[in-house]
Amino acid sequence: MIIEITYKLSYDEFKRAFVFHYSKIKNYKLNIFFSLVLIVFCSICWFAMGYSMIWLLCIILSLLSLSLNVYVYAFLPKRLYKREPRISKEVTMKVDEDGFDSFSEGIQSKIRWDFYSNAKENDEFIMLYFGKDSFTIIPKRAFREKNDYMSFKELMHKYIQKVEQK
After folding, report:
1. SS3 state of residue 163
2. Cα separations (Å) of 88 from 20, 131, 151, 161?
3. What would the mean pLDDT of 67-71 be, rounded to a whole number?
4. Residue 42 and residue 152: Cα distance in Å, rounded?
5. Every domain of the chain and the residues it spans
């Protein structure tokens, strides 16, 4: 049985998938909140207790953490989406026991199941990983019928050792 999947990721979808990917590492909203709280706390201590290298260092590290989190979650997805043309193009995949035949504008590839080391799934996406931070995004809306989705999940569980459900 061949399962055909066709989709085009919008920027908003890509950003949600990107945040879903990084959610395994950290909760970015919580990191931003704590960075802001620490900046305010250290600033108050600095003004109340006087200058100290500890307060200055604490403020600098908090600003660095805040900047990194804002960059990764607010600016990096847009940059990647614009820079990588294959992300924003329509993709058609034919999936079977042998793997994936993937077609998009100017690109045709054959990917075997063993190329993927693990998978992660939520209500909106299936993420197939080949390496630590490299992945294929498949939006669940791309499955034409529930039967196609169920058949895909069976293949995924059969060929990919680690499948995580969120």
Report:
1. strand
2. 18, 21, 26, 29
3. 86
4. 52
5. 3-8+88-165, 15-83
Write out the two tokens for 72. 């990764």
Identify the bridge partners of residue 143 per DSSP, sorted by sequence position: 5
CA 78 – CA 136 distance, rounded (Å): 17
Q: Are 11 and 97 in contact (CB under 8 A)?
A: no
Q: Residue 81 — left, alpha, or beta (φ > 0 → left; ψ -120 to 50 → alpha)?
A: alpha
Q: Tokens 């058609």 correspond to what residue?
A: 92
Bridge-based pairing of strands 162-165 and 118-121 is: parallel
Structure tokens at 87: 């992300």
Are 96 and 138 contacting, i.e. CB atoms less than 8 angstroms apart?
no
CATH 2.30.29, applies to 3-8+88-165: yes
Torsion angle, alpha carbons of 10, 14, 15, 17, to 10: 140
pTM of the predicted structure, to 2 decimals: 0.78
pLDDT tens, position by position, 97-154: 999 999 988 889 999 999 999 999 999 999 999 987 789 999 999 999 999 999 999 9
